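User: My advisor asked me to double-check a structure prediction for Radical SAM superfamily enzyme YgiQ, UPF0313 family before group meeting. I don't want to rely on an old file, so could you generate it fresh from this sequence?
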Amino acid sequence: MKHSSKHFLLINPWIYDTAAYDFWLKPLGLLYIGSILKNYGFKVNMIDLMNRHDKYFKENNLIKDRYYGTGKYYFEEVEKPEIIRDIPRKLKRYGLPEKEFRKRLENYKEVDGIIVTSTMTYWYYGVYKTIEIIREVFPEKRIFLGGIYVSIMPEHAKQYFHKLNVKVIPGTGNMAVNQLLSYYDIKVDTINWVEELEPAYELYEDEISYIVITSSIGCPFKCTYCFTPRMWKYQIRSVKSIIKGLKKILEFKKVKDVVFFDDAFLLHPEKERLLEELSKFNVRFHLPNGIHARLVNEKIAELFSKANFKVIKLGYETSNEELQKKTGGKVTNEELLKATKFLLANGLNETSAYIMANLPDQKVEDVISGIDFCFDLGIIPSVNEFTPIPNTPQYMELVSRGWLKMDTDPLLLNNSILPHWWKYGMSVEEIEMIKSYLRVKKNKFN
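Assistant: Sure, here is a fresh prediction for Radical SAM superfamily enzyme YgiQ, UPF0313 family from the sequence you gave:
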């Protein structure tokens, strides 16, 4: 069923944070929404405020690329909201300058609806600031807000964005699109978008330095700290569909780096065939989301190498075996050792592992011993600071202990803000000590 009468503008909002880096961040959900709407015949445009290769940055010589298409965002320091006013960290707005954003919006006076996405719960303030500008420029237009934050915290979003007259749409894929179109009294047939469509990268008029795709949506594991299995039904894309989609995107976006953002890449039933097919492309592949170490064997490592995979992150989280079991039992020290051995033997020297710091009940020594364990294996770990995610089992447990309130403002849950006020975790000094320890080990290792 084709509808050419309506025109939608998609917007990837600013990030307001104390620190942000373009570690392959593309608004995948929003690009899929664009693809679904285009498939039904709607006219779709996009403003991605976070595209570092936007023509504005190119013309002003502001592109700071680092490795494999990643890089530093342009930012401007901004005033902090009341709730974090006393936290001794600067707040920055990352992305396109406000003046340029206003100028772009003027090109879309005829659109029927504006769709804004959201990702991290603690980035909602940047989403609010983005919509404030849209509302000033378009006092009457319909504005819709969807994405991860909205799906995790629908009630918070409804309350907070109410004064900007925003329609809040939790959920994903067809469910979100059907809710959106119901405001226009339009009904469409449901489409298997996971299998039939790819993200609408053609909406980028400017260059981009990488693309993000997936071989599956969701995750069958139920880790206590993660919201993914509660938001998505786990679905696998066929190898044929992945390869066809990748070819199509690479025809008009000639990037060197392709990133799989799966939560469970190695659970694909045809992973070996998929890796064989990927080895026919002349690009570099990356797996930054933490693959399951127990599923890495000699054959998989060989195929990763053959297909030119570069950055491979293993999900490790903690070296403490009790905490490993408590948070979901995804990996053991022995499994990490085996996986690393196979990957390094195949020349995959940019293999790394994620370690969490500041998990509930975690001691500083746990993190240090995890760091040491990784270096002993010959890989450099990445230390991620714990962010409590509202409405996950782990969050509810912290509420039941009285360690967090049910209605704690998400801004306070940002991992760079949390240690400044949360008395149940590691102190700012302890976190700094861990980071400094890691830096010293890295320098020696290199």
